[in-house]
Each structure stands twice: as C-alpha cells, then as structure tokens.
Amino acid sequence: MSAGTDAVATYTAAASCAPGTPLTLTLTRREALADGVVRLTLARADGLPVPAWTPGAHIDLLLGPGLERQYSLCGDPDDTSALQVAVLRETAGRGGSQYVHDRLTEGATVRARGPRNHFALVGAEHYLFIAGGIGITPLLPMIAEAGRRGAGWHLVYGGRTRASMAFAGELRARWPEHVEICPQDETGLLDLDGLLGVARDGTAVYCCGPEPLLAAVEERCASWPPSALHMERFAPRAGGDAVPEEPFEVELAQSGMTLTVPADRSVLEAVEDAGVPVLSSCREGTCGTCETGVLEGVPDHRDSLLTSEERAVGDVMFICVSRCRSGRLVLDL
Ligand code: FES
User: Fold this and answer.
1) Residues 303-315: what's their mean pLDDT?
2) CA 297 distance to own-chain centroid
C-alpha cells in the first residue's frame, strides 16, 4: 500500500465486482504542496457525501488499465464533502504518480474504490509518529485524532530537504512543541536509537515512509511489546523464506467449490481461474484489497500488512501472496 507514493499494482478485470463498486469522483482542486508533491481534492461527481473513513485509511485510484494505485487519505474524516490525497511524483515508479501529476487537472473525472483501512489508530496513552517523506500523509489525520482523544503525541518527520516535505511548515507552526522536522540535508538521518532505544509502556509507534526507514524502525522496536509498532508499507516486506512451494487445497465456503492451488499459482489466481469474482489490486500483499476470511486451516502469511498478533489469530489472509501451512484451507469466498 502507498501513502502517496506510486505503489506497484496490477489492474484486473476481476477487481470491479461488489463490494468494490467504484466511485466516480471529480478533481475539484489540485495544489502544489512541496517539491514533487500535489494534493488532490476529490468530490463525488453526483454531489453526494463521500464515504466515511477513519485515520489511516486509503483509497484506490483507478487511473486506467495497469494504473491502479493506493493513496492514503490526508484530509479531515469529518469533512464529507471531499476526499484528499497527496501524491509524490516518482520518476522511477511505474507511472501512476506521473499520470496523476501530468494528466489529472482540475475538473477531471477519476474513478476510485474504498476507502479501506489496514492502518487504524489503536487506543494508547501516547503516540510516537515517525514519518519519512510522503509517508506523512496517513499520519496527518491520526495526529488530529490523537489530539481529539486527549492522548499525548510526538511527531518526528524526516525528508530529503525541507522543500520536499509536504505539510512540514503547517505542522510545525500549529504544534511546535509536538513536531520535529528533520530534513536530511540539515540534520542527517533520524535518531532512531534515541527515539526507540528504550521501550515505553503505553506508547504506540506509528511509522510510514520508505522501506529502509520501516526496516530500521522495525529493528529498533524488536524489544518493544509486539503490539506497540504499527507500520504501513509502500512495497512488499523484504526477505522471506526461500522454501519450495507445495500445492494445497482450498474450499470456497460460499461458492461451494474445492480447488487445488498449484505450487506455482497464488490462491488469488486459482480462485480467479475458477471464475469466482474477487477483488484485488497490488497482488503483492501490500494494499489489503484481497483480504479474505479464513474459516478453517492455518494460513502461511506472506503479506506486508498483518501484525504478528493478527497473524497468530489467523482468521484473515491476503490471498494474492499468502499460502497454507495445513494442507487445506476453508475460505469465506
Ligand atoms: S491484492 Fe493487494 S494485498 Fe492482495
């Protein structure tokens, strides 16, 4: 999934069924926020209120075949007149952000799906928010919500240069005692050892940014309680076990079918091959679109979304990447 970056995604025909019926939105405002970053304000073309959402949620922008991208919502959840996203132009990306920057002008029609939230704000006495670059976007409504809840919070926001850091000026002006702005060319890399070296009870850590930052935060939080760290990834988690794949059986409880998932196919592909409609987007375990309930069996989780606690519960899986540890799964499909 993506904060405002050009995450990898693949458009499939199977992605158009209910409950993912796309919204038709109109780009009512487009603003340059920082070097390479634009904010889009998107209202429903039919004038109705936009769907409700909570801090940490994202929408899929359906920009065209092969151009389906996820962007975190960065506006105010109480504002039902429009949704807002901020998009970083990524010249080395796969074209989604360049399409947004080069082709989407005010008045354009944009189809979208969602909102969906796999990065929700849990209850905590205190929040430590760590943002890298455009990863600030999902944290903005979280900060406002933390304040509404009366919780303590602190934001450490790193970026390449001050000019590249969207929202930095307004964040610092509004909450000078809560916000640290850390442009790398002025202050160097974030002091993660200082921030995370000692685990703090009652503190939830929320981090969004590029993979090296996420990996470094994850490493520093190894001694924290497992439920303390919450991250949103733009790209699949690095690593993973290089184990030979095995075929396994999947029963689709709603469809009444039993399928064999071959060693070289994903559950998602096997389900699509069987003609069962299922939503998908990134097909790499980052966006959450293909979340599927697990009724029986033990999933082999390979996504970049679930926490270790959620994995242990085992009642949902992301079928684009995850497989099976028990030889057979019963899925709520
Ligand atoms: S399609 Fe994105 S997580 Fe499966």
Assistant:
1) 89
2) 27
